[in-house]
Amino acid sequence: MTDLLNPTETGIATAARLLSEGALVAFPTETVYGLGGDARSDIAVARIFEAKGRPRFNPLIVHVADLDAARAVAVFDERAERVATAFWPGPLTLVLPLRPSARLSPLVTADLPSVAVRVPAHPVAQALFRAFGGPLAAPSANPSGKVSPTRAEHVMAGLAGRIAAVVDGGACAVGVESTILGLTDGPALLRPGGIPAEALEDCLGQRLEAGGDAARPNAPGQLASHYAPSAPVRLGVATPEPGAFWLGFGPGASSADLNLSPSGDLVEAAANLFHYLREADSRAAGPICVSPIPDKGLGRAINDRLRRAAAPRPPD
Ligand code: AMP
Ligand code: MG
């Protein structure tokens, strides 16, 4: 059951409580409806990927109430301060260095050292952020591969039964996604959107690079150093060889060194994945052997990530 909540004080309070319990709530922004989950909770963020049926763990945009809250999750330089002051709240997302003390789930950033952050202008989104009091990971509230929703009915049509609630704030004004500006290097237009590139160039006094590598942060090989443990990784291993580190999954792997989910729950496995890959790498004396993971639902995204971890990588 997915509740349709009115954007009243009571409705917003209910939405904030659900979010603090790790449940998912869709909410309106000025661009499209976002599918919100606590960006600090591994389980909540894993549920976002599950609800959307996303086949890979691409990084999500973190939504916050204001510039102060954004500074708590990302490191702002002078350029970032300038565009944020000019265009926030509004349809602009900044990709900036991640502030480790933010303690975001690594699933939000795809374990990257950067984070995408935005301050939406929509009054209902603003009210929800203030009631919830923390950062929300929020991709568009549609099943993967479908059109972005600009009304609560669209969200219901795609995700009813898969998420806890939708806050109904009417139709979205902009209807296209936020512009994504990369500022971890020279300023780069990572995605065109609600704020024109020319307005950003005027504000920065500088031309934007088109695309750039960060526009495809999940391209194979490109992020090898972030995805790949230094130990060799072997996938689909039911019975690991002696001396291997066993990263297990499910009840059949009760003697594994670490088990992504002893009960075989894919949401739990996704929530643990990045933490356990790092821990396995720090503890492994030989190869890391990973149990087979069913290739359905969230298992597809988990297997996609594991294949990247296991792929041969170029020499440094
Ligand atoms: P959305 O599906 O609207 O949430 O879009 C998120 C997009 O933001 C991704 O496809 C990435 O292109 C971009 N993005 C999010 N986080 C990062 C990041 N840490 N580094 C680079 N790009 C990012
Ligand atoms: Mg989308």
Walkthrough of the structure:
The chain is an alpha/beta fold. It has 2 domains: 3-210, DHBP synthase (Alpha-Beta Complex); 233-310, no CATH class. The protein is built from 10 helices and 15 strands. The protein has helices at 9-20, 42-52, 67-73, 78-87, 123-132, 152-159, 197-204, 224-227, 266-283, 298-310; strands spanning 3-5, 25-27, 34-38, 61-63, 92-97, 114-118, 136-137, 165-167, 179-182, 188-191, 209-210, 233-234, 245-248, 258-259, 288-290. An 11-stranded mixed sheet has the order 1-8-2-3-7-4-6-5-9-10-11, with helices on both faces. Strand 10 (188-191), helix 7 and strand 11 form a beta-alpha-beta unit. The chain starts with a strand and ends in a 6-residue tail after the last helix. Mean pLDDT is 93; it is low at 218-225. It binds adenosine monophosphate (AMP) and magnesium ion.
Highlighted features:
316 residues; alpha/beta; DHBP synthase; 2 domains; eleven-stranded mixed beta sheet; 10 helices; binds adenosine monophosphate; binds magnesium ion
Order of helices and strands: EHEEHEHHEEHEHEEEHEHEEEHEH
Q: What small molecules does the structure contain?
A: adenosine monophosphate, magnesium ion
Percentage of residues assigned to helices: 25-40%
CATH superfamily of the largest domain: DHBP synthase
Can you tell me the overall shape?
globular
Q: Largest sheet at a glance?
A: 11 strands, mixed
Strand order of the largest sheet: 1-8-2-3-7-4-6-5-9-10-11
End-to-end separation: 50 Å
Total DSSP helices:
10
The count of β-strands is 15
Strand content of the residues, in percent? Answer: 15-25%
CATH class of the largest domain: Alpha Beta
Task: Let me know the average pLDDT.
Answer: 93
Query: From the alpha-carbon coordinates, what is the Rg to the nearest angstrom?
Result: 20 Å
Quaternary structure state of the chains depicted = single chain
Low-pLDDT parts are 218-225
